[in-house]
Specification:
- With 131 residues, the protein is mainly beta.
- The chain has one domain: Immunoglobulin-like.
- The chain contains one helix and ten strands; from the N terminus they run ββββαββββββ.
- The strands form three sheets. Strands 1-10-3-6 form a four-stranded mixed sheet, with no helix packed on it. Strands 5-4-8-9 form a four-stranded antiparallel sheet. A two-stranded antiparallel ribbon has the order 2-7.
- It is globular and about 40 Å long.
- The termini are close together.
- About 5% of the residues have low confidence.
């Protein structure tokens, strides 16, 4: 895999997210863009992998199962997503991002959510077309 990027923004205020049930968790949200056009990628799937599993382990069998995933999100027509579950803060997570026609992002320990993270916590990424 090459020419992919995962950007984590720790400043600025994101759009309103539901209040997490626990004070020690946040939703993640962001935009997945096409590297060539700069436009959002519709239908990209974002998987936040459970802390005891790496992204590499989760994709090793070409299937990501629910028992490997802590939270998911799917992008809308503008490339925006928000996780379906709040994520505990002060931890590092592996992330997998896939979209039809694009190279996947498999980022072991790719997102660190600090203890003072805003809700939602912004995680943006850029995908390149498959060859």
């Amino acid at each position: 895999m090459d020419d992919v990027s995962l950007i984590v923004c720790t400043t600025g205020a994101g759009p309103a997210a539901p209040q997490p049930a626990a004070n020690n968790s946040v939703y993640i949200a962001g935009t997945i863009d096409n590297a060539d056009t700069g436009r959002g990628v519709e239908g990209a799937q974002v998987f936040v992998i459970k802390p005891d599993t790496s992204a590499t382990q989760a994709v090793a069998d070409d299937t990501i199962t629910r028992d490997e995933v802590l939270a998911t999100g799917t992008t809308d027509a503008k490339g925006y997503y928000q996780s379906d579950q709040a994520i505990p803060i002060n931890q590092t997570y592996s992330i997998v991002i896939v979209a039809r026609g694009f190279r996947p992002i498999v980022a072991d320990d790719g997102v660190e959510i600090p203890a003072d993270a805003d809700n939602p916590f912004a995680v943006d990424a850029t995908l390149r077309r498959s060859r």
